[in-house]
Structures
1.
Amino acid sequence: MKVLVQQAPFDFGAEAEAFARAQHNMGAVVTFTGIVRDSVEGGMAEMQIEHYPGMTEKALTQFAQDAMDRFDLGDALVIHRYGHLGRDEMIMMVATAARHRKDAFAAAEYMMDWLKSRAPFWKKEVGDTGAQWVDARDEDEDALSRW
């Protein structure tokens, strides 16, 4: 299991390939990548993501371990960026490996729902009309509640 919280961009292809190649006796690998999208009226110039070093890594590591146990995963990877990110940049990546695809898919979805709703990051969208903090959305909470 690996958890990375970093400012630098990551190479999705290289990360996915390294993760998949490291698996032994696993029947499925699932990956997901989140991309910064324009959600501000009038156009978003960038998203600013803040976090508390140490606290964030600890929370994500505990969460990833919970997913490993809950879904009988062989391995998991979480990469989440912080800092100033432009539209269309990759913001995060989740990869899961399990003996069976059902566990790999369910674990990836669970991890994505948790990261969207509970991960200790604070996001601000900056656009032509100013800046605004990103509030929790009801649909994200609803998605998390099914777990």
Note: The chain has one domain: 2-145.
2.
Amino acid sequence: MDLLVDAQHCLAVRDVSLQATRLTLPGISNNNELPTEIVEALDELDAQLRAQRHLFSQHQRCLFISDDWFARVESSLQDVAEQLKQARK
């Protein structure tokens, strides 16, 4: 048997054709779905991010800061959105 640890840090076994299959406990499905409490937490974070973006867009015209600061804030909001997207995968 050829065992390896895959990119998601799960134990996998490779067959003769080097096709990897993850090992799981009996009775546990291997559908890679996130537990509901994690999905709910990610949904809550997503809602908070949308609220922050909305507040930022509302107050942006009232802030007396330079354009590069606006770009930094927007970039950080986009980074958070991308991290949430990656967490859902």
Note: Residues 36-59 form the longest helix (24 residues).
